[in-house]
Amino acid sequence: MAEQSTSSNINITDAVLNQSPVIKDAENVTINYMQPPSTSSSDEDEWNSMRKLMKLCISYLEIEGKLRIQGVSAKEKIPVVHPIIHEITYYDKDTVPVDERYNPKGPNELFKNKIKREVCFQDLLDQKGKFISIVASAGSGKTVLSLRLAKAFSLLKRLCIHLKLMDANYEEPLTLRQLLLDNMFPGHSEEFYTACFSWMQKNAEKIVLILDGLDQAQYSLEKISPKINYNACVPVKDLVFNLCRKHFFPNSLLIITSRPHAVLYLPEPARPQVTYALSDLSLKDTKELFLTFADEDLWRKINTTSSQILSMCRNPLMLQMIISSNIDPSEDIGDASTPTRLFATVMKNLTQSGHIHNTEGLDELVKRLRVLAFDATKEGKVVLTAKQLRSACVDPATIHDIVVQLHTHGLSVNSCLFEGNTKFFFCHQTFQEHLTASYVVYGMPLEQFQDFVETSLFQDHWTVVRRFVCGLLFDLESKAVSGDLQMKKEILKKHLIQQLAIISEKYMKTHQPYGLDDEALRHKLFDLYACVGEGKDSSIATKAAEHFPTTIQLPHPMNSNLVPGFCFVMKHVTKQLDVLSLSFCNLDANSFHEIASVIKEMKPGQIGKMDINGNYLQPSNIDDVIGLLRVVRDRLRMWECFIDDDGRKREANQGDAREITFDYKMLVMWSCFYGDGRIWRVANLDERNQLQSALNNIQTKLKVLVELGITLRSQK
């Protein structure tokens, strides 16, 4: 968009603004920085102009849509996929961390306790006359969603103007008409702009205004601006604030997209009436978008060798990075099969890529970003100021709008490391965490490293960073490691094994089979297993296996990122286990297959009792269940562990309400009506016959509980 003003606006100088009254009560004062009123237009002129404007809006959306996918379309058609959308309670107490404070659980946890309901794209289209906001972290698809909304509204014959606030950082004062029409669609006559603006004032209920990227604006809306009229010539922030207040076009639909913090700071009179939070793509949409850029073979490869990476693919930005890194991983990195290896490959690709504004090369810049990332993570920040960047010897102009050409696949990604103009953010929190870990490993002095490991690294605040540190230091077996790196590796190994022993012992003391245990300890233990898995060091896994609890319950739910580490440790477990419970862990078909593949290689009868009920298994997983029969000695409980053949849970119906007695009551009702009122299913007749046949082929006293009151046993 051209940043230009009409000649009438150029004559409005700061002297005009200086003539305005002193504002004591900005709520109630209307300021008239009036330009001469335009000549009135007829209804016919207005309608003809509006039809032309609608066509211009659609043309703009078509151009913007193409820019969003530049260089990435290996196929003719880009699939229409949407992130999962939730309506949230945004302005209640403790709603979000100040300035999006660093959260080691990740951005998708930000609104976990604030969700009112899940909504669909159509729900957003049905909104009328409100001010709504759409908030999400970087790379989640805010701009793409806003462009699709704009196009859909246009098809519904509503005038939809989509304005990127990053492109509207005008320094000179201007009018609302100039902001929305003259500068958005330059080169037309005064009569055209006058007719369109007149129609808009008369037909506000037919207007949709989408202001994309409030966090990209160079101004702040934290202070209340005075009320102004339609012809006032003022700074952009006053125009935007009055739009939020619904002083302009009160019956229109106004949509603002932003990172969460910028909307959170809006003063109460200018806050949105409804807030939607974008989460990740669904697995189905993830695969559809993945196959736009790559082929089915790569999807199968990642799914088989490193399924935890797929959960990261649900962020569209990360999906592109992951595809590039797996298509042609750096020679000194090898297979990008763990998050640590993946990000090492991504960073390697970035330093070899084409970019703008940076003449010294990204390699040198990354070294400085490591220090910046560590300091920010230590202080609990993800939003940084230009002053903080300069203090780390990083020129804000150098990193603004970095355009990375990922050299192997033609994927072009804007702002790979940072986004923003006045406030800066790593485009994905995991970049900050990986850079933080890289500083700890490669930049932190040895003496400081030892103190950091002893006092800080095993605190919850450093959970994800700790995994990357373990991955970077332990996954070095094939490389020549000497000096400080070798000493750091030994220090970390010693303290990790100590932590595994301490947490395992505490867990065993508090855990009671089928009772409540210390959930925090359980999560801590599995986070440590994830560290072991990142490093792929068998000697550490063997030590972890020595301390493996004989009775253990997986976390509820079991994050797919924790599965590989758990499996890596389980491969080294040689002791007898009394109980292994996977109940209500929400394991999908892939995660269960990964776990079952390890268990079936264990010794016959090595596990006493095992529970797998309350998971999302598919019919193909029956072979995995059969593989467990030889290893489990006494009892396998598996009622209601499947979902329907099409991969969806089916709705609960009246027939699912059954009479349940004694201690099963609460547990079974939980499984029947878990979450949104949907249920799992028990093994069907064909699956039971397969289980019975498998039981008959082995010598076992195992009881398989497939449904309440129905137990399968070997008929030998």
UniProtKB/TrEMBL annotation:
Q: Which InterPro entries match?
A: NACHT_NTPase, NLRP_innate_immun_reg, P-loop_NTPase
Establish whether keyword Cytoplasm is in the entry. Answer: yes
Every copy of the NACHT domain together lies at 137-293
- This chain's protein is named NACHT domain-containing protein
Q: Which organism is it from?
A: Clavelina lepadiformis (Light-bulb sea squirt)
**Statement: the UniProt record of this protein carries the keyword Chloroplast:** no
Compartments, as annotated in UniProt: Cytoplasm
Q: Which controlled-vocabulary keywords does the entry list?
A: Cytoplasm, Repeat
Pfam families, sorted: NACHT
Source domain of life is Eukaryota
